[in-house]
Structure prediction request, 398 residues.
Amino acid sequence: MITSFLQFTEEKLGQAEKTELDAHFENLLARADSTKNWTEKILRQTEVLLQPNPSARVEEFLYEKLDRKVPSRVTNGELLAQYMTEAANDFGPGTPYGKTLIKVGETQRRLGAAERDFIHSASINFLTPLRNFLEGDWRTISKERRILQNCRLDLDACKARLKKAKAAEAKAACEGDAVPDFQETRPRNYILSASASALWSDEVEKAEHELRLTQTEFDRQAEVTRLLLEGISSTHVNHLRCLHEFVESQTNYYAQCYQYMLDLQKQLGSSKGEIFSGTFVGNAESTSPPPAATSPPAVAAATLPAVPTIPVVPTIVGVPNTVAESVLNPNEVKPPASGTRKARVLYDYEAADSSELALLADEMITVYSLPGMDPDWLIGERGNQKGKVPVTYLELLS
Prediction:
């Protein structure tokens, strides 16, 4: 251990030579380090995506380290659904606002449940394999790399020891080759040189023996480490499969959310006219005309080009607004010179009367607005057919 430390220190100071690994081995090491670093980053950011709350992430981490089951946590959508349901019960579930709160709350509950399923699926199919690599395979690779490093230091230390022993042996041999003068009173220097040469020869033999042993151990450890590093390719294949599963789970999650919101929009669109009719009929002092019975919420009328408007005569309950009716009669109106747009129909719509235009999902129609029109509606044209169409059933195109 001390020899390895001294060898490492001398290498850092540039006073000792170092055994270099081959280029292929160095590439495997660099690839393994890159895999470990990026896996850690992807793992951490995926955890943030699935659980943005840092306190909740710390709590889940502690439960995992203690090998205890993580307690079930209510999602934000489920909590919002709970508040909406409680508010509906407080305001009255039979009121228009209460009914809508219940519908929206139910959709939020379904969104929250879908989010929970997505988080569970992503954790099992994506996060767990990444953690298993970092806590399993990578730890094994790191351990074997440390052993290889120690073997390499021992090997270089033996090489340095052998080099020094050979140099000392050569020096002693040179001194021993000189012919002694036995007339001298101190011929023992010759005897000492011969003795030193023999000692260094023994030292060289020991150093060569240790070098062979350390070289064998180094080669064996290098092969073990190399096989583990080459296994990174299999790790990439496994992580690729897990990534496909993660994308599939995320796709299913967003598809569910989209379908839930479409269903909710249809429910609210079909019930808005009924709700507002009941509201305005009950409010005899209201001077605003009620929207059409099947009028869905306006979401895109403001995006149409502006057309000149004319004053609208306020509607009084029971008294028809002849100006607006004459302007909005689809059979008599003509499209403005400018301001028409193309629109794609989002889903089917059944006309309530002859003034409306029935729609089929994904078809293209021409739409425009007229002065005095309800902003929730547009005039739609399909060939020779013309009629009012609800805005929220359309996707306005540029």
